[in-house]
Amino acid sequence: MSAAxxxxxxxxxxxxxxxxxxxxxxxxxAARLWSYVYLEGIEDWAAMSDLPARFRAKAEGELxxxxxxxxxxxxxxxxxxxxxxxxxxxxxxxxxxxxRYTGRVTACISSQAxxxxxxVFCATGQMGFVRHLTPGEIVAQAMHVDAVLxxxxxxxxxPAPALADSTHASPHARHExxxxxxxxxxxEPLHNYDAVMKAIDILRDxxxxxxxxxxxxxSTVGVVPGILRLAAEQRPFHLAVSLHGATxxxxxxxxxxxxxxxxxxxxxxxxxxxxxxxxRIFYEWTLIEGKNDTPESAHAVGxxxxxxxxxxxxxxxxxxxxxxxxxxGRDAAKKFQAILADYGLPSTIRQRRGIDIAAGCGQLAVAxx
Length: 369
Ligand code: SAH
Ligand code: SF4
Fold this sequence. Notes:
369 residues, alpha/beta, two-stranded parallel ribbon, 11 helices, 14 strands, 33% helix, binds S-adenosyl-L-homocysteine, binds iron/sulfur cluster
């Protein structure tokens, strides 16, 4: 019995070229296959007319495009967010979110089905760990969003009225490509380090989707060995670290893995990262009313991060079934921000989007099969 076809999206370009040469074909065919998929969005073997039939037949037998079936698609009433429930080949489900704000399109991508870290206010944490995603399953989420963008006109680019001189006007609306990704969907990316790094390498390939390193943000709960590895390997994308508590005790009550990687060890790792990479860290702080949003908490954050090359992203709590805290209101959030500014710390208050469809930060969860 022959083995199941491998997932095309698990391969780097170099691996694809090596594969083709093992099959006895010149690298040029594999390179053309790569560009069909990543530059033209074509996955239909019959449409790859530049490729010799023998190569196509071999590739079709050996490789499958492991694209996820869409089990559900939910647009948010805010018009800026769209959530996709995607089905993996083993029937497990994950969520991917397309966000359009501040003039750019960003895909929020999952790195695992479920999550083992158990943060109390996070729906993914509440569902527990199901399994790691493969590199191809991570890449395919980006390709899913890219395909959506290719086939739909941007909302602010509704068909223009006919121009007097329309001879050079394209009959088609201009389509966007995916340019930004955040690894802030389901799962803890540094708990699935190798697969996530390979997926990022594939998405960054300059002859493929060519995502810029500065357009990629990875968010971690604070997996210390992973942060040190990112620093040692000089990975060039942005890093966000979920903080939520400025003392060990406060943080451990919200983020249980703080017991494994205590706050002082996390801060040491972050300082190492900043020094090695010469790049700031974004700290995420979920604002929970009466819990970690008081002026005392803000001063504690200020003291903890003062002098670091850091920016704080404040995220008013999004509702989840398993946690009954309330989000901080606008005024208290502004006050928190003003205190951070006194310590020289820039911060932003995350816009609340997609809450009605549970596509906001920490709301992603699916029924465990
Ligand atoms: N596992 C990674 C990335 C996914 S979560 C991490 O924890 O960093 C992305 C961000 O959403 C994290 O900062 C997380 O703490 C935050 N978050 C989780 N649940 C939330 C909720 N209910 N409301 C607001 N933010 C939440
Ligand atoms: Fe996992 Fe991040 Fe949710 Fe914590 S906040 S449970 S690390 S996905």
